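Review form for a predicted model. The reviewer records the input and the model, then writes brief findings.
Reviewer: anonymous (R2)
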Amino acid sequence: MSDELRRLSASVVVTGVRDEDLDDRRFAEYPFGGFVYFDRNARSLTALRALSDRILERYEDLPPVLAIDQEGGRVMRLREGIAPMPPASTVGATGDERLAEAIGARCAYDLRRAGCNLDFAPVLDLALDERNTVIGDRSFGAEPQAVTRMAGAFARGLERGGVVATFKHFPGHGSTYVDSHQALPRIDVDEATLRSRDFVPFAQLVPKARAIMTAHVVVAALDPSVPATLSPRILNGLLRDELGFQGVCFSDCVQMAAIASEFGSIEGAVLALGAGVDAVTISHDPYLGMAVADRIARAVEEGAIPGERLRQAAARMERLRASLEPPLPQ
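Model under review:
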């Protein structure tokens, strides 16, 4: 494969990383579009900032996406050296949009001191099924308009603080109790109900968003055959054509069982890109990220993915990366 094809393919991959991985010379051959941080990286703000600085030194032109799941409550990868954050359910219960925006702004301040420029938050999923532990208190609530207001306010705070907000998990993970980390969930709810309920926060917030993340959930009323992450009908028809989303569509991690067990992480990544995802997320293994980049390149060479689809995704990532804010002093 050509160097240009490998570069383009790597630019649509966001992968996890450890400090020691950066010593591998192969990283120079795979200029990933971004990296996602987890607890292993975020022992402290100082440790995470050191890793961010090491990564940024390798990118002379556009900075990479440096992403983290920092929602508040139980989903906070970075905890030491920052302001504590309550779970979204607690914030949502206050009904105070100014508070939600202030929490988002403070989160952005802490993340930028750690070198992060994108947050995989806020959650727009509704708390509809009490058995749903994968979402649970990560949701701002069960009422669509209230969730729209509170999640929108949190996102405004993030953006005001210089961090990209990523609305997730499109088109909604709240109507199933099955955890997509463990299995492939299926939502058997009629389309009219979904449009009046689950889709509402996305319909109102996504059109002007810079980033969203997909759900590994089969939404039978829209596409009974594959999860949303792999569905052109959902990602192109609903997200792009109907809602008018112009930003970067990140997949949820393709190492999750909903994709890995059903399709395989590598082939799932290829299917996701072909369906309309712009950045494939591989949370835990940068070497799998390299294999995915190679497989994407081969898929383009073989005609399984149109070259224009790869260039489109890479261009969207490039625009997002050009808009990223630099780190703040610690």
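Findings: Residues 3-322 form a domain with the TIM Barrel fold (CATH 3.20.20.300).
Further findings: Residues 36 and 67 are 5 Å apart (CA to CA).
Recommendation: see findings above.
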